[in-house]
Amino acid sequence: MAQFFTEKELQHLYWRAGFGISVLELKKIKKLNKEKVVNTLFKSNDVENLLKTDVSNISTTTKGLTGEERNAIRKKQVEKLEEINLEWVAQMIKTNAVLRERMTLFFTNHFSTRIVKAKITLDLHQTIRKNALGNFGELLLQVSKSPAMIAFLNNQQNKKKSPNENFAREVMELFTLGRDGGYTEKDIKEAARAFTGWSINKEEGFKFKKQLHDYETKTVLGSTGNFEGQDIIKLLLKEKQTALYLCHKMYAYFVNPKVNSVHVKEMATSFYNSDYDIKTLLKTMFLSTWFYEEKNIGAKIKSPIDLLVGLSRQFGVEYEASKSLIFLQKQLNQMLFYPPNVAGWPGDKYWIDNSTLMLRLKLPAATLNKGIIEVEENEVIMDSMLEGLDTMSGEVRSLEKGSRYLIRKTKATTNWAVFLREVKDKNKQELIRFLIQPKLSSIAQKILEASMEESVKNFTIQLVSLPEYQLC
Amino acid sequence: MERRDFLKRSILASGATFIPSFLKAMELVSLETLSAHKNVIIIQLSGGNDGLNTIVPIGNDIYYKLRPKIAKSLQDTIKIQDNLAFNNHLKEIAALYDQGEMCVVNNVGYPNPNRSHFRSTDIWHTASGANKYINTGWVGRYLDANCTNPYEAIEVNKGLSLALKGEKLNGISVDDPRFLYKNTQETFFKGIATNTNNSMLTEDNQGYLYKTMLETYSSAAYINEKQKIYKTPIEYPKGKFGKNLKQIASFINSGLATKVYYSSLGGFDSHVNQVGQQDRLLETYSKSVGALVKDLKKQGHFKDTLILTFTEFGRRVKENASMGTDHGTANNVTIISGGLKTAGIYNEVPDLQNLDANGDLKHTVDFRSIYATVLANWLVVDDKAILNSAFNKMNFV
Questions:
Q1: A-chain residues within 8 Å CB-CB of B284?
Q2: Among A32, A146, B212, B355, whose Cα sits 20 to 30 Å from the Cα of B7?
Q3: Rounded distance between C-alpha atoms, residue B278 and residue B45, angstroms
Q4: E strands present in chain B
């Protein structure tokens, strides 16, 4: 193994572990050997950077309220969720501790919830954030006890007399073993009994309701005992399949959507043997030679968040109205805290259809060039975004929503001076290598060859307009 | 120099305007498809339309007892049969029914119903069971199995619904065909699309991006070119939904090779003050569909068109304290076509006596039976391959 990473490899590492890298950062770390680069990455991520949005003064109960009062609360919840969303995005753009943000994003999608309640959504977010570089078992336990997950997967309705299997099913199918991961319907039923009584108190915190818990014997995955919820979690972690499933998902996310099962096994062994230490797993991955293989570089489609955060970090893009970032997330189909379902966003080519691709291709140039992005907001989309579970109903939606199309003009400014100063020593070929991760297609090459005489600014706009810029 | 000029120079000056072979083939296809083929228009009433105030169980005491404030009185309905009547804002729909061009399937749903909008919408779009998560839609899988071009399924809207997303092929979303065309004709986009060659359409993500660009480019060109053929003389209701259905009629009457169209009308989530709000929406729906059918009939395409209307769930039988209804389960699905085999009320009316623990209707027809019937008997394709399972076929077509 060579002692140092190439610039391309460092860019690759920083796109996957973070949201790209600036010229200055690159200059700094390329002098370090591989081990030091990876250690630096982890060291700078010791901070948790908890979000600070204040969610304390939203009423937690809607009992006995009129429709209008419920509406007002619901509207406030939606607004707070947007505030949390924007704070998170701003942090992703500003922070040096990118790996913490990346892992928080990954696990937020792994443990997807969608519930229009700001406090418990933020609580779960902080829990994930705190544990994102810690121990997976601990994270799993904390998430399972989080009111957001309990509410989202109906564990409040999971009672001894009438068990609800929703959480028990998803904890196996989506969080640990994976579909067809060696459990049976019987395992789900029995595990559900162990989670009876895991509920939420009036202050929206975790509460174990003894009187609802089933204290009888259960048999799950071949073990029999007087199990409670945490015992089931332990049983699930004991299965090597859990490490394998997690690593498979991580490989697809961090390395290549086309999964190499030999490498996944290598990761899973390290993960399992470290008792699910997330840092150990990430280090195994980032220090492997296969992580940097050419076929893995530029193999992923940037998620909308990757694209937006990446643009802002690289070019100092700032939006005049911060809400623009909400519209763009919606239009590009990745609005944080509103995943499509408990399975989260599938990612990669599922980001792409004709309308999202058109917008994605136009977005970088429009942002960097004129600074104006026109987003036509479809209220039908917005409407469905706002719809949460029916725990807080009462919103009046009158009129034909589809008839109210809004054009949102978003103004953005780009800090060209800084970018141009940073890249002033780079020639055009170096600029291509710096901004584009995958190999250029023949047409992209042709376009760029014809543009070699252009100013650095025009050339850069050209680069970010290429389909290749959508990849990382 | 302006960016636009420089791009024009850089791409067009290269002179290598390579036209992919399938673009040429496309022109041949378009001639052939002037002959009529069967098509389906899917309409989602999103938000969860209250089926019981749409097709009303008149004369049912339980209905009036559970809905003292919002029940439709007899004079607010158009009678179908002794125990069923249309909401009187569905005049055009009732007329279609009288002409034997409509079939109403009652009590449609699925096991373990989910009462969340987005989850239940997902289930209807993907045709999955309540506890399966699938990333492709049923129309998308129809495209995968039976079609070669994205424009064979068009959503008239901004953005593409999950229903139209396949594994290999996505449908195409078109809000305004001229706008889409203009966008794809922009020098940079066109330059890339027209210079894309087969070696670039690799199996990886990069290839996928180029493929989507190319498909968007050629679909936009195809749609724009074909739809110039027809100008409708029919007047549609003002508003987005009427405009969307007008667009669909224009596509069909222009002879597009499209098999499935998709559109939606939102705002049905009537928790509060339901009556006026729902009535207005139903009127928009009825007038727009009425105009669409008139338009299609004029050109002789109605016998080849089937309009399937669904909503993600029905609403609770008992009204709530805010003069509205909360999320429920089973509901009616309507099929409107000039080529029905069985018109009328297809099955038993909702059983208000026998509700589930939440006070919601129990389903007796799985919605995937309707999909299977449309796929097998109307589009004449293998429904099992698309729905991943065999569902009982019905005989409305």
A1: 400
A2: B212
A3: 11
A4: 39-46, 55-56, 77-81, 84-87, 102-109, 153-156, 172-174, 260-266, 305-310, 331-337, 344-345, 365-366
Q: Which domain holds residue B322?
A: 39-177+236-267+280-361+374-387
Mean per-residue pLDDT over chain A, rounded = 90
Question: Do residues B112 and A382 lie in contact, with contact meaning Cβ atoms separated by under 8 Å?
Answer: no
Q: d(Cα A235, Cα A268) in Å, to the nearest integer?
A: 17
A39 to chain B, closest Cα gap in Å: 31
Residue B329 is assigned to a structural domain of this protein = yes
Per-residue pLDDT band at A460 (split at 50, 70, 90): very high
* Total number of domains constituting chain B: 1
* Residues in chain A within 8 Å Cβ distance of B119: 341
Average pLDDT of chain B?
Answer: 90
Cα-to-chain-centroid distance, residue A214: 35
CB atoms B165 and A353 under 8 Å: yes
Residues in chain A: 472
* Half-sphere exposure of residue A356: CA atoms within 13 angstroms, side-chain side: 26
- What percentage of chain A exceeds 90 in pLDDT? 78
Q: Which is it for strands B305-310 and B331-337: parallel, antiparallel or unpaired? A: antiparallel
Chain-chain contact of B192 with A443 (C-beta, under 8 angstroms): yes
Q: Given this model, what pLDDT does residue B15 score?
A: 33
Q: What residues of chain A lie within 8 A of the CB of B204, using their CB?
A: 258, 299
Q: Is residue B275 part of a domain?
A: no
| Chain center to CA of B180 | 20
pLDDT band at residue B29 using 50, 70 and 90 as cut-offs: very low
CB contact under 8 A, B195 and A443: yes
CA B73 centroid distance within chain: 31
pLDDT of A408 > 80? The answer is no
Residue to mutate among A69, A161, A353, with most B CBs inside 10 A, is: A353
Of A343, A354, A394, the CB nearest to B272: A394
**Among B272, B284, B287, the residue to mutate for chain A (most A Cβ within 10 A):** B272
- pLDDT of A369 reads 82
Nearest-CA distance A174 → chain B (Å): 10
pLDDT of residue A386: 42
Q: Which of A270-274, A324-328, A395-399, B117-121 has the lowest mean pLDDT?
A: A395-399
Query: Per the CB < 8 Å rule, is A354 touching B47?
Result: no
pLDDT tens for A228-249 read 999 999 999 999 999 999 999 9
The rounded Cα A438 to chain-centroid distance in angstroms is 22
Distance CA A209, CA A191 (A): 17
Residues of chain A with Cβ-Cβ distance to B239 below 8 Å are 400, 402-403
Torsion angle in degrees (nearest 10) through CA of A403, B123, B375, B140: 70
Question: Is B220 within the bounds of a domain?
Answer: no
Query: Which residue bears the tokens 């990382």?
Result: A472
Give every strand in the sheet of A372-377, ordered side by side.
Answer: A318-319, A406-413, A372-377
Contact list in B for residue A169 (CB cut-off 8 A) is 131
Cα–Cα nearest to A401, from B42, B118, B264, B43: B264
The stretch A279-293 carries a mean pLDDT of 97
CA–CA separation, A97 and B133 (whole Å): 33
CB contact under 8 A, A446 and B14: yes
* CA gap A10, A4 in Å, rounded: 10
Q: N- to C-terminal Cα distance for chain A?
A: 23
Closest residue on chain B to A299 (Cα): B205
Domain at B105, CATH number:
3.40.720
Of the candidates A195, A151, A205, the residue with the CA atom closest to the CA atom of residue A172:
A195
How many helices (DSSP H) and strands (DSSP E) are in chain B? 13, 12
Say if B33 falls within a structural domain.
Answer: no
